[in-house]
Amino acid sequence: MNQSALFTIFGGTGDLAKRKLYPSLFRLYRKGNLKDHFAVIGTARRPWSDEHYREIVQETIKDLHPSPAEAEEFSSHFYYLSHNVNDTNHYDELRELTERLDEQYQLANNRVYYLAMAPQFFGTIVQHLQSQGILTEEGFNRLVIEKPFGFDYDSANELNRQIRAVFPEKDIFRIDHYLGKEMIQNIAVVRFANNIFESMWNNRYIDNIQITFSESLGVEDRGGYYENSGALKDMVQNHILQVVSLLAMEVPVSFSDESIRLEKVKALKAIRRYTTEEVTENFVRGQYDAGKLDTTEFIPYRKEPNVAEDSATETFVAGKFLIDNFRWSGVPFYIRTGKRMTEKGTRINIVFKQVPVNVFHFDNEDVSPELSHNVLTIYIQPTEGFSLTLNGKQIGQGFNPEPVKLDFRQSAEVTENSPEAYEKLLLDALRGDGTNFSHWDEVANSWEIVDCIKKTWDQITPDFPNYAAGTMGPKASFDLLNKNGHDWIWTPDNWYRERGKLD
Ligand code: NAP
Fold first, then answer.
1. Which of 447, 445, 427 is nearest to 436 (CA)?
2. CA 194/CA 187 separation, integer angstroms
3. How far, in Å, CA of 495 to CA of 293, rounded?
4. Full-model pTM
5. Which among 205, 387, 419, 472 is most buried, taking Cβ atoms within 10 Å?
6. Which secondary structure element, helix H or strand E, spans residue 403, and what is its range?
7. How far apart are CA 447 and CA 153, in angstroms?
8. Atom 3, ligand 1: which residue's CA is nearest?
9. Residue 143 β-bridge partners
10. Residue 83 carries which DSSP code?
11. Pocket flag, ligand 1, residue 144 (CB < 6 Å)
């Protein structure tokens, strides 16, 4: 597909635009998804010239090794407009440039507005796009917005009201970049294209589900942002609940964005809204202290730049969601995410129930050999693939079962050459396909779920810090599973402990 469109990037000088958007646009250009009929307007306050902007754009695609002619040709489609989003006059200049480029590149009035800026500006930008006549009647007008979408249900609802006053839902593309990741998209294929899984995808066969999004990095230079967010809002409200809904949803009637969304929303609606007591029972928060992993030493969160000395912000969350419907009643969906954990990794473990009777018990032996649970693991990053743990017979005398693992990982070459999440999402937005974006109903339900937890936490002063940097979180996170007779399947910390590299 070669689509004509004008991209207007608000926040064109920012980190996201430089690290993700320009390289992704270049990949689309290189693959021929964007050709002669595209142009980009970058806007922000600083007074850059087109020439300087194009140099910056070229700099951002250096790692993709374009030839000088290719870099020159690609960046010639980029135009810069110094623009303060709060200044109405600037939108008139934007309209003039938009109309000029539309004609020059024959863009058929197709427009994508990408808001790579802090959310407090979203309302004013969309209002001005309308009031200053930048939106067109012909072609398409699509709005791409970044997370965070609000900071609780009420603020998200207000933001949504402002945006929906200008753009219909079908033209709003709320980015959750995890939804652009290959293996997240693969969840649907693993489930709906494999009878052995879909037929067992319910509370009769599944014991529990574990979702881990762990980061080995600390808060780095994002202390200011993170202090107002924390792990619950930064990760659970969006990425983790999206994954829960993909795992829990019913089979859609067809693989269209509407059918999938309908089922995801039903799954989110069925997640139990916890009372204060239930939050305390089922959710754990943590904040990292100093720590040492192997030879590397880490400072506590409270000593990071732009973090309060008595900060109550959580850098770790673990919890148990319950889904009150026929398919999932009684199956815990455990989730955990945090910073400064042992290893960076996103993975899902589907833990199947044990066989009803262990027949490998022999009269002349006191104990039966233990059977492991069958576990389907979906690896999302850094490696991509899945594995299935089964019980096989140990070679030799007797009938001792032992776990064996069927392991499939995409090769590094395939992973490197597969499109980046932002590239896929930009192409989806260009095609008008909303499957891999968050619909308002999903955002609203996720905020409702998270607000219950946050409200309870706000009433109690946490006992922070409570986990050492380099570990897999506070003890309470392990206790949370243990009290239901479960254990976290993924324990990279044990590898280090066994070798004396972690206390
Ligand atoms: P950033 O580096 O701080 O960029 C903000 C941009 O907004 C800059 O280009 C800034 O340029 C511009 N800006 C600020 N005030 C303005 C105004 N009044 N009028 C016009 N332009 C203005 O932020 P970012 O990291 O790119 O993040 C942008 C959005 O993406 C945020 O909502 C963030 O949460 C989200 N996000 C970012 C990442 C990431 O990897 N960076 C990942 C996920 C989500 P001037 O100073 O020149 O005006």
1. 427
2. 11
3. 11
4. 0.93
5. 472
6. strand 401-409
7. 5
8. 14
9. 113, 172
10. -
11. no
* Residue indicated by tokens 């859609």: 252
Element (H, E) at 392: strand 385-393
**Ligand 1 center to 225 CA (angstroms):** 12
Stated length of the chain: 503
Domain formed by 179-498, architecture: 2-Layer Sandwich (3.30)
- Per-residue pLDDT in tens (0 to 9) along the chain, 503 residues: 668 999 999 999 999 999 999 999 999 999 999 999 999 999 999 999 999 999 999 999 999 999 999 999 999 999 999 999 999 999 999 999 999 999 999 999 999 999 999 888 999 999 999 999 999 989 999 999 998 899 999 999 999 999 999 999 999 999 998 888 888 888 999 999 999 999 999 999 999 999 999 999 999 999 999 999 999 999 999 999 999 999 999 999 998 889 999 999 999 999 999 999 999 999 999 999 999 999 999 999 999 999 999 999 999 999 999 999 999 999 999 999 999 999 999 999 999 999 988 888 766 666 677 889 999 999 998 989 999 999 999 888 878 889 999 999 988 777 777 788 899 999 999 999 999 999 999 999 999 999 999 999 999 999 999 999 999 999 999 999 999 999 999 999 999 999 999 98
Q: Which two tokens stand for residue 437?
A: 């974006």
Which phi and psi angles does 24 have, rounded to 5°?
Answer: -70, -40
Sign of CA dihedral 412, 417, 418, 419: positive
Residue whose entry in the numeric block shows the structure tokens 């770790």: 316
- Cα–Cα distance between 457 and 6 in angstroms, integer? 45
Regarding the beta carbon of 47 and ligand 1, being less than 6 Å apart is answered no
Annotated catalytic residue: which of 77, 83, 90, 239? 239
Give the 3-state secondary structure of residue 385.
strand
Tokens representing 393 are 């017979």
| Rounded Cα–Cα distance for residues 42 and 308 (Å) | 35
8 Å CB contact between 113 and 154: no
Backbone angles phi and psi of 502, in degrees to 5: -150, 135
What distance in angstroms lies between residue 413's CA and the mean position of ligand 1's atoms? Answer: 32
Where exactly are the structural domains of the chain?
A: 3-146, 179-498
The answer to whether 239 is a known catalytic residue is: yes
Q: Which two tokens stand for residue 311?
A: 């900060």
Taking CA atoms only, the protein residue closest to ligand 1 atom 39 is 16
C-alpha–C-alpha distance, residues 153 and 443, integer Å: 8
Residue 167 in tokens: 């753009």
Q: 3-class DSSP state for residue 433?
A: coil
